[in-house]
Amino acid sequence: MNARKETVDKRKKYVIVNHGNLFNSELNTTLLNSDQSVYEVIRIIDGKALFLEDHYTRLVSSVQMSGFYFEMDLPEFRHNILELVRLNQIENGNVKFVLAEFKKVNHWSFSFIPHSYPDTNDYEQGVKAELLFAERENPNAKIIQNVIRERANQLIADQKLYEVLLVDRDGLITEGSRSNVFFVKGNRFYTAPAYQVLVGVTRQKVLQCLTELRFTIVEEAVLASEINTYDAAFLTGTSPKVLPVRSIGKQVFNTQLQVVKELMDQYNNLIASYIKSH
Hints:
This protein is of the alpha+beta class. The chain is 29% helix and 31% strand. The longest helix is centred in the C-terminal third of the chain and has 20 residues, at 258-277.
């Protein structure tokens, strides 16, 4: 089974809210997780925020598309994350930033959240996924959309999946509920174009790696009815990195494709290089 196993560190005691105020993590943040909240999730590796600059740029884009006012610059954003890491004494995990507006006043928080990192077996044998017919209202903005998230979480729990893939009204597979998805045919890598998906930071880095490896990239969404014509599929995201998919429903894929292994190595090397240089 490859069901998501959410890991919670019992030491995660502190949340940073609104200009440096500290709260115990049991603080009720329901208001910050409304359907109109903007958020970003950053992976912490060895106490360092991975691809922080890219995450901040995407956050600013989401804020602008949502019409919120956001005055935090990159140095302050970085400082809050590093302070959260220091206070909680956690050097590996996921930090979530949430921004919401109530009565024309901005409220925000930084907190460690449960994470689900694949294990060695998942990377070698792949994970299970299923299709979910649903569309995000604004796929380019990272906005909390509770209805889709709840449907996805229920399907994941019921069928012991790692992820569900969203299918739009035209029968096209656009993205995962919390990841991007790629399909492979020969040496060609297919993924939905940017306007159809939330452009994940990992997705951007994977496209960079594919270019460096000189593989062919086709930005074209795959029809759900034609997945049997592809050799392999994999997910990309903050937690999974580059994660092979073993099956989507009854369709089984090759999890040992050499071109995908080369991509996984290239991406892991990119992470190591970033951590070393920061």
